[in-house]
Structure of 2-oxoglutarate-dependent ethylene/succinate-forming enzyme:
Amino acid sequence: MNRIPSVNLQDFLSEDANRKQKFIDEIGKAYEEIGFVALKGHFLDDQLVDNLYSEVKNFFDLPVETKRSYEIEGIGGQRGYISFGKESAKGKKEGDLKEFWHFGQYVEDDPERAKEYPENVTVNELAQFNKIGKETYQMLEKTAKYVLRALALYLNLEETYFDNYIHNGNSILRPIHYPPILEEPENAVRAAAHGDINLITLLMGAQGRGLQVQNNAGEWIDAMAEPDELMINVGDMLSRHTNNKLKSTIHRVVNPPRELWGTSRYSIPFFMHPISEMKLDVLESCIDEDNPKQFDNITAGEFLNERLIELGLKK
Ligand SMILES: O=C(O)CCC(=O)C(=O)O
Ligand SMILES: [Fe+2]
C-alpha cells in the first residue's frame, strides 16, 4: 500500500447498517495493512480548530523563561511544558527537534481516579489556551470513542468493549512546535522514527509535508491529510492487544528541505490511552495456529511506565 486510505466517521454514525459496516470494513482493512487512515466527519468544527491553532501559536511565542516556568519536574512530562530537545525516540540518543505541551484528562465524576493523575497546568498569560485545550481534548476523545467502537466490531467484540476502559482514561493532547531550523541538524530530526505507545492516535496538523509512514515494503510514504481530515493510527497498546492484527506503524517527521528551514511546523496529536489497569493481554480471538501469542501479559499502566523511561521523560 502506498497511500493512506480516507474514511468518513459519518458512515459509522449513520442509521444505515450498510454504511456503518462499510466504515468498519474500510478502517479494519486499513489498520491490518498500513495502520493509518485519514478521517473526515469528526467532531471538531472549523472555528474550534482555528482557535486552537492561534492559541497554540500564542503559547509557543511566549518567552522561553515563561514557557519554562510551566515545566514540572517529577511527573514524567505528563502535564505542562516539555522543552526543546528533551524527548528522544526509543533507542535514539539525539533529542527530537521539538517543544510541546501536554493537556491531560479532566476527571469530573470520579474523585479516586482524579487523584491518580497529575493536575492540568494553567497558563496564566493565556486564558483562552486552557479553555480551548480542554474543549479540543473532549471532542477528540469523543471522536476516538466511536473509532474504537468500530474497531471493537471489526474484532468481533461488543461494540462498547472499549468504552469503560477509555472513560477517564489517561489520554494526552500534545500541541507540538517544531521551530525553524537554525543550524545543520546533523543526526537530529523533527521526530525520529517511532511507534506510538497508546491505543490510537488522532493527529491534527498533518496537512503540510513532513509526516512519513513506513509501509510493509519498508518504503517511507508521505502521509498528508485534507484540510478537514485527522490522521488516525494504531498505537503499540492496540497492536499488542490484537496480537499485531492491527498494525502500529513506524512513522517520523522529516526535516524540511533547506530553503524551508525557516518555517515552523505545528501539529497536535491526541494520544488515546485507557485507564492504567486495563489488561493489554492478547485477545483470545486473535490467537490461532497461524498466529501464536506474540506478547507477554501487561497492563496499560505498566507498559506506559516502561516506555516513558525509554523516551527519556521518566527516570
Ligand atoms: O508531528 C507530527 O505530524 C507527528 C508527531 C508524532 O508522530 C508524535 O508526536 O507521536
Ligand atoms: Fe507518533
Summary: Residues 176, 191, 196, 203, 206, 211, 251, 253, 267, 269 surround 2-oxoglutaric acid (ligand 1) (CB under 6 Å). The CA atoms of residues 44 and 139 lie 6 Å apart. The chain is about 30% helix and 15% strand.
